[in-house]
Amino acid sequence: MREVIVAGGGPAGLAAAIAARQAGLAVSVFDCARPPIDKACGEGIMPDGLDALARLGVSIPVEQAFAFCGIRFIDDAHSVAARFSGGAGLGVRRVVLHDLLVRHATVLGVELNWGARVTGASGTDIEVDGARVPFRWLVCADGQNSLLRRKSGLFPTPVVKMRYGFRRHYKLRPWTDFVEVHWAQCGQMYVTPIADDEVCVAFITRDLATRFDAALPRFSRLAARLDGAEIAGATIGAVTASRRMRHVYNGHVALIGEAAGSVDAITGEGLSIAFRQAFALAAAMRRNRMDQYEAAHNQITRTPRNMARLLLTLDGHERFRRRVLGALQRQHEAFETMLDVHTGAKSPLEFGVGQALRLGWNLLHT
């Protein structure tokens, strides 16, 4: 019998495996893909995510990443920026991050089984390439459309809000050390510096018919920046969803990462959430207290879900977005506090009544 089986070898699954090994558990990972595993994403890790990654024992070499100091929102009339107060974030290629996680898991003694297809699960074993493999704990890290989640009797709430993302790399020297979020009626484009000579641009939209090249001219400031820049590699796509789970465990089966529910990529917190969940899950398996994992999971995702609701409201209502960006441009400290709350550097209570009232006043007079 395997003590812990992790089904899914992406960043969430590897983080769960590493945290479980740190807790003294024997871990086996199964994934049908082979590393390095890529995915369409913004390729930015927020400061809270880097803190969790450091706790896992993973450090990203400076020559393989680019530090960013904050977030800037831009539309055709506004530009408002806020710096992190709790340290910098890092832009890093997804394949680089995955390789680092694989290497560290290997050093810790995690058994990694690549090219192994998991096709079924029960309460006591999983089916891998037709063979039954018993387990004490099963961690489902097989993504937002998790097969094992359904087979384990765990189901999301009926309401799922989906958007579509496309990622492209440009060979271009970053013009800023901020992550820029460009807003237009068709969606957002996120620009993350990932190297001294390269930026990642991710486009997220509600409309699958609107593709990257058709959307880019609508972001006039960004289009001017990228004009003539060399495109590096292929443009790849993915679905981003806001999905909640009623429960994230059933007996000795637990969910992590997007299998455990997801927030829209607009928050930039997907990796940070998964890395923090990994520690809570490892502790719960060690204590045989999955109820504690579910409570920690709910706490970890609460603020990102609230932020996702706010940002998706801005996405869906152009006039309201313009008013909010105008108010934040005049009340710069409110944006900085919101960013600190979002990244865990401050409590939501620290936003303060006075700051909220001033922001409300600015909204009324925009």
Number of domains: 3
- Compute the number of strand runs: 18
Mean pLDDT: 92
Sheet with most strands: 8 strands, mixed
Helix content: 25-40%
Instruction: Specify the CATH class of the largest domain.
Output: Alpha Beta
Low-confidence stretches: 353-365
CATH superfamily of the largest domain: FAD/NAD(P)-binding domain
First and last CA, distance: 64 Å
Going by helix content, strand content and strand pairing, the class is: alpha/beta
CATH topology of the largest domain: FAD/NAD(P)-binding domain
Task: Report Rg.
Answer: 21 Å
The fraction of residues assigned to DSSP E strands is: 25-35%
CATH architecture of the largest domain: 3-Layer(bba) Sandwich
Topology as a string of helices (H) and strands (E)? EHEEHEEEEHEEEEHEEEEHHEEEHHHHH
Shape: globular
The helix tally amounts to: 11
Model description:
It is a single chain. By secondary structure, the protein is of the alpha/beta class. The protein folds into 3 domains: 2-38 and 93-157 and 244-311, 3-Layer(bba) Sandwich (FAD/NAD(P)-binding domain), CATH 3.50.50.60; 161-241, D-Amino Acid Oxidase, subunit A, domain 2 (D-Amino Acid Oxidase, Chain A, domain 2), CATH 3.30.9; 318-364, no CATH class. 36% of the residues lie in helices and 28% in strands. It has helices spanning 11-22, 47-55, 94-108, 147-151, 212-215, 220-226, 270-287, 290-316, 318-330, 332-342, 353-364, and strands at residues 2-7, 27-31, 44-45, 66-68, 70-74, 79-83, 89-91, 111-114, 118-121, 125-128, 131-140, 161-171, 178-184, 187-195, 198-205, 230-242, 249-250, 253-255. The strands form 3 sheets. Strands 1, 2, 8, 9, 10, 11, 17 and 18 form an 8-stranded mixed beta sheet that branches. The protein has a 7-stranded mixed beta sheet with strand order 6-5-13-14-15-12-16, sandwiched between helices.
